[in-house]
Amino acid sequence: MLSTRNLDSLLAIDPLKARCKTIGVVDTIVSGASNFQTYTYHPNWAAGKEVFERNNQQGDRLFILFNQAGAIINGFDHESNMADWRSNLTAQEWELLRNPKVSFEEKKQLRTKNTYTQHIYKGVVDSVPEVFRPFIFSPPISEIGTTFCIWKTPTDDAWQIGDIDFPSNTTEIIQGETTRSIEVPIDGSENLLRFMDGDLEAYRKWLSEYYDDIFTDTEMDMDFILKVENNTPISKEMVLTFHPLMTDYRPLIKALEELGYPHTLVPL
């Protein structure tokens, strides 16, 4: 399975960029250009920079930057063993927050004081090339977090990661007076890198399951995904396949034009 521990199946930069664009366009159309789509492609992130983003709306994020220097992938899985955001409050201050006898004003002051600092696991970003560091250490990534990082420059023969002593995939939780081990992601790359190996069939199945309100009696058609991959202009008939009641095409038109993707849609 594709992960930071096995990068053999990760697509090369140009095919990866093309695949990310395809997924971004398909997700835009199937979601109706909603604010809750999982995959988004940003062709105008900044001058000379394009970014692919995955947001599962549950705290896990993936960003892939494409520019003249190559590409860099940043992932954050909030449940992984390598996610580490720490509060600046002491244990005693947390006890005060939980104490029902402490006044509202005192608790308000503690909450105002409270901030979180990310402690990135040793080796994950230490050797990131200088050209990519502003992207990794600036918002939004610096505010979301990093549990894995992968990069490739024109001089690299293969995708690169840092020198990392990976933790186990288990952690201990306390339930009452009992402590037990549960399985957790190591860095989240197995999940967040899904479909980056070129497996369109896996993506088709995911669409059918994720958008089950649309695909109630059927499944996502691979033919539609291939049409998008081949840059086929989006028509009203194609959109109505997923959204038979859609009457206002303006949000979708705006999204497609921002993506630079061809269409024949009219606003009303």
| Span between termini | 45 Å
Strand content: 15-25%
Number of domains: 2
Number of helices: 10
Q: What structural class results from the helix and strand content?
A: alpha+beta
Helices and strands, in order, run as HEEEEEHHEHHEEEHHHHH
Main sheet attributes: strand count, strand direction, barrel closure: 5 strands, antiparallel
What is the overall silhouette?
A: globular
The count of β-strands is: 9
**Residues in helix, %:** 25-40%
The residue-averaged pLDDT reads: 92
What are the segments in which pLDDT stays under 50 over at least 5 consecutive residues? Answer: none
Instruction: Report Rg.
Output: 22 Å
Strand line-up of the largest beta sheet: 1-2-3-4-7
Describe this entry's structure for a reader.
With 268 residues, the chain is of the alpha+beta class. It has 2 domains: 13-84 and 119-259, no CATH class; 90-117, no CATH class. Helix content is 31%, strand content 19%. The chain has 10 helices and 9 strands. The protein has helices spanning 13-31, 91-98, 104-113, 133-136, 141-144, 189-192, 200-210, 222-229, 236-240, 250-259, and strands spanning 39-46, 49-55, 61-67, 70-76, 85-87, 116-118, 148-152, 170-175, 178-183. Strands 1-2-3-4-7 form a 5-stranded antiparallel β-sheet. Strands 5-6 form a two-stranded antiparallel ribbon. A two-stranded antiparallel ribbon has the order 8-9. Strand 2 (49-55) and strand 3 (61-67) form a beta hairpin. Helix 1 runs antiparallel to helix 10 (250-259). The longest helix is centred in the N-terminal third of the chain and has 19 residues, at 13-31. The radius of gyration is 22 Å and the shape is globular. The model has no long low-confidence stretch (mean pLDDT 92).
